[in-house]
Amino acid sequence: MPSVLAHPDNIVSYWGWKDWLHYIFGYGKTNNNPLAAGQFWFLRDLIILVFISPVLRYLIRKYPKTYFLVISIFYFSGIQVYFVQTEALFFYSLGLYWGILDFDLFNFVDNMHWTGCSIVFLFILIRTKYFPVNIFMLKIRAINSAFIILKISKFIINKQKLFHISEYLAGFSFFLYAIHMPALLQLLQTLWLHFLPMKSPSLCLFEYFGVTILTILIGTMFGVLLRKICPPLFSLLNGGRK
User: What is the pTM of this model?
Assistant: First the structure.
């Protein structure tokens, strides 16, 4: 890790507590993502939101419309909330609304047509590809993608064999999420580029999907082996999941 251990302007031995706070937890700089393992912003924010959930539940019950308007403005405008990512606050709050108001989300998604979801997704994809990036459109794409994934999940649930396979693999989803960065992904990228340099657009595309598929396969296989060899360690590293 030369950027941490040997960079002349950022030698780790000179770090203060603020530098360590930023490196591990992500706080202290303009970007609140942890540098040690960026994907764990999600886990950090989830812990914080669980702790403050009584306050959020109070706001939802007392001021449901006002609170929803505020978090929507934050989310769609890209305004950052310092203590957590705005995306985390928005979707966690939607989950609280779902539970408190007893909203039938699955029935709502089932009633959405594939044609409409696909048209919206393609429109936003083309819009963000050929025109200046608009943060509002990116946020709409995220929500629309979530609806599509939920509709796909219903198809998987209705197919018994697919359901059993997905149910088994679901036990490794968090482990794969935790292990894929930074070491595994960077190692595979380095090896891939050593043998197949990205000298053309097709090789760039091949590298993107190839490394992604290898990361998923190797990370999942490692999780399967670890759970068989040492189940207590797998459970510990996997957040208590069996």
Answer: 0.78
